[in-house]
Amino acid sequence: MADLKERQPRVDDPRFQRSLGALHEAVIALLEAQPVENISITALVQAAGVTRPTFYQHFADVPDAARHVALARLDAAFVEPVPLLETFQITADSIFGRVAAQALPVIEHLARHRIFYRHVLDGAGTAAFFEEVIAFLAGRFLPDAFDLASRKGGATRDDLMTVMASGVMWLIVQWLRDQTSAEAPEAVARRIAAVSSAMIGGAGA
Fold first, then answer.
1. Alpha-carbon torsion 157, 158, 159, 165, what sign?
2. Nearest CA among 115, 14, 136, 11 for reference residue 68
């Protein structure tokens, strides 16, 4: 599966963008109400007001559309981290604070749209999709801090980022799928920050 950057809409084609936007809205509305397996391409194109051939210009099938829209929504929910200053000191406390602040808006977004993301995970969560999510997360959780930590701790930057992103993803997946969980977004963000601070802070010590 191509990564998110390769799947961005063509900015030079307004009709392509309009149809993609309409399909995104339709996917979101339908997945907020029902599982992937209950949604047909016919229902999607009717909700989006586009033709079936137009759907196939963007997606291979309904699960592909669900994965694409989920990644796009995650991308929009992330706040781009402020680059670290050269004087930044990697410690468990400094990493905890930065990651908690960065993760909270995303966790709050996931909490508001829990049913949507649960339906995507359960009905379209292929191994390739999870790899794509891991790569997505790895590029957004303080890459410059991982770079600094790798210089001091021996592990490579990419290994640190991949392990961190994989762990974060599964913590979030477990939380999303646990229908009995009353854990607040703030608590989930703190858990992620604690793992990050242990990994990056420890590597940078």
1. positive
2. 136
User: Per-residue pLDDT averaged across 18-29, rounded?
Assistant: 96
- Answer yes or no: is 39 within a domain: yes
With tokens 């009717």, the residue in question is 46
CA distance 32 to 106: 18
DSSP assignment, residue 175? H
Helix (H, G, I), strand (E, B) or coil at 11: coil
Instruction: Give dist(CA 117, CA 125) in Å, integer.
Output: 10
Question: What is the chain's percent helix, strand, coil content, to nearest 5?
Answer: 75, 0, 25
| pTM metric for this prediction | 0.82
In 3D, which of 77, 159, 66, 68 has the Cα closest to residue 118? Answer: 66
pLDDT one-digit tens code per residue, 172-195: 999 998 877 788 999 999 998 888
Type and span of the H or E element at 20: helix 14-31
Confirm if 103 and 169 have CB atoms less than 8 A apart: no
**Most confident by average pLDDT, 38-42, 158-162, 192-196:** 38-42
Please state the domain count of the chain. 2
Range of the domain at 30: 5-60
At residue 191's C-alpha, the angle toward residues 194 and 94, to 5°, is 30
